[in-house]
Amino acid sequence: MNARCVRRLAAALALSLAAGSVFAESSTVVAIVHAKLYTLETAQPVDDATIVLRDGRVQAVGAGLAPPVGARVLDAGGRIVTPGLMSAGSQLGLLEVSSLPDTRDHSVSGGVLGAAFDVQRALNPNSTLLARALDDGLTRTISHPDGSAVVPFMGQAALLRLGDPASLLERPQVAMFVRAGTPAATAAGGSRSASWILLRNALAEAARYRPARDAGAPRDQLLGRLDAEALKPVVAGRMPLAIVADRESDIRQAIALHDDTRLPLILYGGAEAWRVARELASRRIPVVLDPTLNMPASFDTLGARADSAALLHAAGVPIALSVSAFHRSFNAGSGLREGAGLAVANGLPWFEGLRAMTSAPADIFGLADRYGRVRPGFDADLVVWDGDPLEPSTQALHVFVRGVEVDLTYARHRALARRYAPPPPGATSLPPAYRH
Amino acid sequence: MPHDSPRLFLMLASLTLLLPFLGGPAAARDDDRPSGQDTARELRNFAAQAYPSTYRPLPRRDALITGATVLDGAGHRLERADVLLRDGKVVAVGQGLSAPADVVRVDATGRWVTPGIVDPHSHLGNFPTPYTGEDLLHTDVNEDSDPNTAQVWAQHSINVQDPGFARALAGGVTTLQIMPGSTNLFGGRTIVLRNVPANTVQGMILPGAPFGLKMACGENVVHAYGDSGRFPVSRMGAVSGQRGAWLKASRYLDEWRRYAAGEGRHPPEPDLQLDTLAGVLTGDIRLHAHCYRGDDIAQLVDMSHEFGFHIAAIHHAAEGYKVPELFVREGMCAAVWPDWWGYKREAYDAIRENAAYLEAAGACVAMHSDSSVSGQRLNLEAAKAAAAGRRAGVDLPPERVIQWLTRNPARMLGLEARLGTLEPGKAADVVVWSGDPFSVYSHADLVYVDGALAFDRSDPARQPKSDFELGQPSQGAVP
Questions:
Q1: How far apart are CA A435 and CA A391, in angstroms?
Q2: What is the pLDDT of residue B3?
Q3: Which of B169, B292, B344, B440 is the best residue to mutate to test the A interface, defined by the most A CB atoms within 10 Å of its own CB?
């Protein structure tokens, strides 16, 4: 952080008092030079790469390219550069302090909304979790609901792009989340079979549903109008079903549903997915898994094992990552990297670990035309790392979103760390409350 | 609910009533000799282990580990060094050690060697996986029937078949302190275990390890009780409940002291709850306090002065970095996470620099898990905390950071004379890592407990697996 940046930041602050990340509008051209660049096009890095960022996009990529005249030149000094990371599942923007209901918008337990529950209207660009995630190199996330009032639906997820508070929501309604397994069984009256019957019925009702003036839904329809309408894109195959399931039996049910309906499916959780790897691979059903889960945390995950990502990859299953409840949102960036590192420590090839946080989720969520690889015309969302990004102790040195470096100087976690930094010996000063 | 069980109540009550007649040390005499002349009278042993350890080290052979990068836990880093283990103890650490021919040679060239990890805050066994819906109703980790349950002992809750023990072992954890939970002002006694498989908890208890008492500040207690309108509903209520208990315990201790000095004819009525608190007041039981906020920690420190006890450690200490001087002045350790924050109000200000800032101030810092997941990877927890420190200008070398996992938690548990470093005479608790222990790619290849090889990553015959996991879908997977 140099003095010029500080001045620019102060000016930006004078215009906007938004806390957390500060995202300055800028048309500056940036050239990152001497990078060890993982474009994600191939497993091999481009050494001594130059990446030119202009108007929010990558303009040029190549080894040893001369930076354009007038560009801000950032010397990466041989450090690793990757696309900004993407979590395939968090509740970023939907919570601040998870024990406090006032600060939580990720689920509804009352009211009428089931499939129609959609998180897009709750997103909080000033959530301090976003700055924490950006500081750890995360620039995109699927932010998904955690539960609705109608079993087995959790609701509709959104794609977020971090960095600019004005455009946090990149795309709403990217997937319809459905819960399977023990939690769904409990909500469905006591058996997971009931939850699958309810899901199949809901899809059948939505397929039959026709909005008509003066005509209500059929009298025996369980779905409310809003939920039936929300499921229309799902039954039309335009919105994937994201089924959260860990136990093998539930995963097999999800596959059977896919076979019966041909609806696009994404499997979340998948603790025992490795036992069904061939079936998932032959259908190209991607799995968003938690590589930190290697133990029987519940009776649904008795088959969890540390090398599950490696086994799924070896079988040809596309994988992306979402780490388990705690780090998923509060440490969305670092938790993801640690998860990828653990997957690699247990047999997943290193490059696949990086893919699982970048191009793999981009492919799964239909972003492959603009994000997930470093290619001319793609989003200029990039991170310069001070080491291997899969090591938890590595830090993001520079994070670019839309070609502009994100400045986190005044992010809450950094401000606290600065305020309480060990004082120089002999220093006497006012109480910490005066330091900011 | 457990507290509704009349049978349990009667058992507890009868035990309490019968104790004086069962021949405890203080109940031995009840005659008419004048006070002051009964030399056989002793102060009651408030910290007596009535359910003692039957632990024996696993079968072992002396070993010479050679050619490693050694972080000895005492602050040194040695390259291409050897470690000699004999009769369960560390005998020597240095370059070019020699050993008799029958000593097993372990080539650790290119690998790293550290002391075994000590997790000072675990719920393995008393909150065992798999978790189920039942755990929402009641668990064996919290006796949440009353805010003061200083009388309960964690060791009476432990399910030795918790699959988490073997996984922690595979992560290099050789010693664990199992704590009661934090819903109570006084949660009960802790217990220190050797992380070796056994079919009884007695077979795991580290002989001679001091008991701890788990206390809790703040939010959890107030939620557990206040949310249903029971005492305490506020922080000031919580502190008053703690002070009241210490007052009673001080009186109880005084009565026993006077009786031991020969006053009075009858010993005081023994009380399991007051025994634990009195044991803290005499210094025989170590105090471990769950406390997040800096201002809450300061209240606890003043309470320790008011009643004259020492706080061994503040656990979690999310805002420890705001009051580092208290840790230094009081000689308290801080048992912390590297990056947990935001899940409740008192964790909102937790920052990753916490451990490094406390260390920089001169405090004794340890990583702890409180989790069967991160408890397998305390080495990475330390790596993350150290990295945050480095970024903030507190650059600690690996030989210092390893102390957060070994020497410092051992100190916290009152075991620093026995384990936690690779110094001659210390327990041969040793981990041979495949590489730098602070890298995500490194594994614990070999784990020794008291000189016995308890885990070998390359040998399924040296990988314990709980009964629970037999025949389950994960069978055969290396943890």
A1: 33
A2: 33
A3: B440
A299: closest chain B residue by CA: B130
Note whether A97 contacts B164, CB cutoff 8 Å.
no
A427 and A435 Cβ atoms separated by less than 8 Å: no
Residues 6+ apart with CB under 8 A from B202: B51, B52, B53, B54, B55
pLDDT score of A291: 94
Among B388, B472, B478, select the one facing A296 at the smallest CB separation.
Answer: B472
Residue A167 and residue A161: Cα distance in Å, rounded?
7
Which DSSP symbol is given to B427? B
Compare all CA atoms of chain A with the CA of B439 and give the residue at the minimum distance.
A391
The pLDDT value given to residue A218: 67
Res. A366: pLDDT tops 80: yes
Rounded-to-5 percentages of helix, strand, coil across chain B: 30, 20, 45
B343 touches A: beta carbon within 8 Å: yes
Kindly report the average pLDDT of chain B as a whole number: 92
ipTM of the complex: 0.93
Which residues on A lie below 8 Å from B352 (Cβ)? 413, 417
A99–chain B Cβ distance below 8 A for any pair: yes
B355 vs chain A: nearest CA distance in angstroms?
A: 12
Average pLDDT over residues A330-357: 98
Whether the upstream peptide bond of residue A125 has omega within 30° of 0, thus cis, is no
pLDDT of residue A261 exceeding 60 = yes
Phi, psi (rounded to 5 degrees) for A212? -145, 135
Q: What is the DSSP string of A315-370?
A: HT--EEE---HHHHHHTHHHHHHHHHHHHHHTT--HHHHHHTTTHHHHHHTT-TTT
Report which DSSP code applies to B472.
S
pTM score, whole prediction: 0.92
B288 closest CA partner among B312, B316, B320: B312
* Partner A contacted by B9 (CB < 8 A): no
What is the rounded average pLDDT of the residues A159-163?
A: 97
Give the pLDDT band (50/70/90) at residue A216. low
A305 close to B (CB below 8 A): yes
Residues in chain B: 479
Interface test with B, best of A391, A394, A408 (most B CBs within 10 A): A391
**DSSP state letter for B322:** G
Does any CB of chain B come closer than 8 Å to the CB of residue A417?
yes
Contact B441 A334 (CB under 8 A): no
- The continuous run of DSSP H or E covering B400 comes out as helix B398-401
Structure token pair of residue B49: 């282990």
User: What pLDDT, in 10s, does the model give residues B288-328?
Assistant: 999 999 999 999 999 999 999 999 999 999 999 999 999 99
pLDDT digits 0-9 by tens, B136-187: 788 899 999 999 999 999 999 999 999 999 999 999 999 999 999 999 999 9
Distance of alpha carbon B187 from its chain centroid, rounded? Answer: 14
Task: Give me the total of CB pairs closer than 8 Å, taking one residue from chain A and one from chain B.
Answer: 136
Q: Specify the amino acid at residue B101.
A: A
CA distances from A67 to A373, A380, A381 (A): 20, 16, 18
How many other β-carbons are positioned within 10 Å of the β-carbon of residue B375?
25
Q: Which of A99, A302, A432 sits opposite B130 (nearest CB)?
A: A302
Answer for the pair B270, B252: CB distance below 8 angstroms, yes or no: no
CA distances from A313 to A307, A350, B3 (A): 10, 12, 50
Beta-bridge partners for A159 = A142, A171
With beta carbons under 8 A apart, name residues in chain A contacting B391.
395
